[in-house]
Design a protein that fits this description.
Layout lengths: L1 H6 L14 H23 L5 H14 L1
Helix pairs in contact: 2-3
């Protein structure tokens, strides 16, 4: 209970149980780039120019 009171209305104390806190989101996007984006980009570049391939991937990310 005390930790809830300390965190309440204090943006400087992160809620470590929050899956979507900024540092966790950063880790998720970094992992997405390292594991999925680069593989997908390589595959798309066999048929499209780099700029077009990136545009396709960006559209996919924005829809989901």
């Amino acid at each position: 209970m005390m930790s809830v009171k300390l965190r309440g209305n204090n943006p400087d104390i992160p809620d470590l149980s929050d899956q979507f806190r900024p540092t966790k989101l950063g880790e998720q996007f970094s992992e997405l780039y390292d594991n999925e984006w680069t593989d997908a980009l390589d595959a798309l570049q066999t048929d499209f120019e780099e700029r077009h391939a990136i545009s396709i991937l960006l559209d996919i990310v924005m829809v989901r």
